[in-house]
Amino acid sequence: MGRNIALTIQYDGTRYDGWQRQGNTQKTIQARLEAVLSRMTGEPVELHGSGRTDAGVHAAAQVANFHTSCELDCAEIMRYVNRFLPRDIAVTSVREAGARFHARLSAVRKHYRYRVRTSEVPDVFSRPYVWELGRALDMEAMRRAAEPLLGRHDFAAFCGNRHMKKSTVRTVFDINISEYGGETVIDYFGDGFLYHMVRIMTGTLVEAGLGERDAAGTGDLLASRDRNMAGSLAPAQGLCLMEVMYD
Amino acid sequence: MGRNIALTIQYDGTRYDGWQRQGNTQKTIQARLEAVLSRMTGEPVELHGSGRTDAGVHAAAQVANFHTSCELDCAEIMRYVNRFLPRDIAVTSVREAGARFHARLSAVRKHYRYRVRTSEVPDVFSRPYVWELGRALDMEAMRRAAEPLLGRHDFAAFCGNRHMKKSTVRTVFDINISEYGGETVIDYFGDGFLYHMVRIMTGTLVEAGLGERDAAGTGDLLASRDRNMAGSLAPAQGLCLMEVMYD
C-alpha cells in the first residue's frame, strides 16, 4: 500500500443515496467508485471522501483518497475509472498525494453552492440542479439574515443531527448571494459544515428573502442553539459541493 | 378557433423520438404537448412547429403555434401546460399571434448550436448535451472548412434524405466556431436547414478539425451535391435548436 492517490470526483447526485457507502448497496457514489477501483487494482479499496454529501446532492469537485500498491500511472487510472463508471459519475483529476494526506482530515476550506430558481419560467436544463421556488427573493433581506452567520459560532441550531455528540462549532468564512439567469445563487465557504447545515441555512435565508422570517433575527436564532427556531430544510437537489481546498 | 397562440418550448430531447408526432406514440415532443393542450382546451389541438428536430436533439427555444377557441389567458395557459408536462419539456413563453402567423412558414432565420467536448476530462453535467469527442480540434482548419458553406447554395451534399424531392437550396448566414470550457461550440445561422444538414456539416467540420479531411475541399464537396463526399453524421445529442426568428 505504498501509494496514496487523490481523486477529484464529479457527480450528478439525482440517482444516488448520497456519497457514503451503506451496507452492500451500489446506490452510493462511494460504493460505485470503490467497486471500480477494486477491480482496477485487484485489491479491496477504501476511499476516504472529504465529507459526506446527502442523497440527491451534487458535486462539481468532491475529493477522496485511497492507498494502493497498484502500479498504473495517474493518467491510466483516470482513463480506467471513467471507462467503467456510470455516466453520472466522473473522475476529473488523479494525482499522487503525500503519505499523510487525508481528504477529510487535511481539508481546510469547503465551498458549497445552493441554486434557487426564482423565475416562474421553468428551465429544463437546470431543473435537476435547482430548488424550483418560482418566487422572487429579497436579496438585501437575505444578506442581512446571512450576516450574523459569518465567523466562528456554535451552529447547533443549523444541525440536522439532534443527537450530535461532537462539537457543533464551525467557522463560516463567507456567504455570497447573487442573481444569475432567473436564479438566486448562494455560495457558502467554511472550514466544514454540519449535517444538513447548508440546507438549513438556505431554508432560513429563503424564508427571510420571502418576508416570512425577520431578517434581523438570525443572531438570536444562532444563540438559541435550537434547531426548531431555524428555517426548514431546503431540497437536496439545489445543492452542489463546488470545491474542497487544502493547504 | 378564433385565437392563434404561439408557444416557445424548451426540451431535453434525450428520452424522445424527436419533435414530430408519429402514430399514437407519446414518445415525441409534439404528441406530449398536443395531449396536454387538448386536455386543457377540451378540443383536439394540432401544433405547428417551426421544424422537426431529430430524436435526441434538444431545444432551448423551439416555436410552435395552434388555433383554439379556448378562453384562458396566456399566463393561465403557461401555468397549466407546465403543471402537466413531463420534467424534460417546458413552455417558456405563450403569446397571442396574428391570424396569419405560422411557426414554420413565418420563420425567417434559425440558430442551431452544436457542442463538441474536446477535453479528455469528462463533465457529467454537460454530458447529455455534447458529443464527447475527447480530442483537440484545429479551430482554424474548421473555420477554413466552414467558409465555403456561407451564403446561398444547393446543400444536397449535406442532406440526409437521399430522395429529397423539394429544393435543397438554403442560405447559411453565418457559422461561428468558438472554444469554451473544454468544448468547441459551433453556432449555425440559416434561413432553414435540410434533414440532418447541421449534423452532417458538423461531422464534416470536425473531420477537418482533426486533420482527417482537407479543410480547403468544402467548396468542391458542396459542388458535388453528393452526400457520400461529406462527413459523417454527428451524434444527435450535441445539437440544440437555440432560436427561431420571425419578422
Protein described:
The structure is a homodimer of 247-residue chains. In chain A, α1 (29-41) crosses α2 and α3 (139-146) crosses α4 (197-209). By secondary structure, the first copy, chain A, is of the alpha+beta class. The first copy, chain A, is globular. Chain A has five helices and ten strands, in the order βαββαβββαβββααβ. The mean pLDDT of chain A is 96.
Order of helices and strands of chain A: EHEEHEEEHEEEHHE
Shape of chain A: globular
Count of strand segments of chain A: 10
Report the sheet with the most strands of chain A, covering strand number, pairing sense and barrel closure: 10 strands, mixed
Count of DSSP H/I helices of chain A: 5
Helix content of chain A: 10-25%
Which runs of chain A of at least 5 residues are low in confidence (pLDDT < 50)?
none
Structural class of chain A: alpha+beta
How far apart the termini of chain A lie comes to 24 Å
* Multimeric status of the protein: homodimer
- What is the average of the pLDDT values of chain A? 96
What share of residues are in beta strands of chain A?
Answer: 25-35%
Q: Mind telling me the C-alpha Rg of chain A?
A: 19 Å
Most extensive interface, chain pair and sizes:
A-B, 19 and 19 residues
